[in-house]
Amino acid sequence: MNLTGIKIDRIAMTTAAIEQAGGSADAPGVSIFGCQVEIEPNGVTCDFTSQWTAVRDRCRTWSRDDLRRHQTARHYYDFYQRRLGIQPHETPPSAVNLLIRFAIGDGAKRPIPLIHPAVDAGNVAQAENLIPVAVFDADAIEGDMLLDVARFGDSLLPFGYERPQQIYAGRLVLRDQTKVLSEFCYRDGKAQAVTPTTRRLRILACQVPKVPRSKVVATLLRVVNLLENSHHIR
Prior knowledge:
CATH topology: Phenylalanyl-tRNA Synthetase, Chain B, domain 3
CATH class: Alpha Beta
Number of helices: 7
Largest sheet: 5 strands, antiparallel
Radius of gyration: 17 Å
Distance between the termini: 8 Å
Number of domains: 1
């Protein structure tokens, strides 16, 4: 597939979200870029072993402090603490957390995370670039998506939980017309989880201040490129 033909869009933001991010209408401070593709399995099994081996080899000697100082990751740490009210040392940005769990220290001894080829491709891309990535079943999204701030009573059923979790009012969230889909750069909900029957994907990547748009878009396209190993893509 010619990746230059993939349409990249930016998720709309509410005024409240722009203010929470410390931006303005002309420079909102943060962005979520996305693309949508249709997929069909091509019969090839891909476990991304070679890609994860390269990631692990690259950061074999890294520590958590090295991750905090990384030229890309440090901007997400800073945004977490200043704007999201999340202590990043306790709850690292999602891409960093992936490396902690599966690439550095004892994490490199754990089995490679395999969920679904689309999700696995997203994990590889964010592990390579330290840009948070989300891969959704597009048919589970109702209407347009919007980057907003959480309101009183908003909740999310994240992966790893059996019951919905309340979201602190004022947190940046991605929502569709009926529900919260995720907390920005932090955790996604189960409602839009990719399954074996998924045929349309919405692939997203988060940008924070000082992270180039080009790096975020390249991460999105990397997901599609990796997914081509196991799927026909339109």
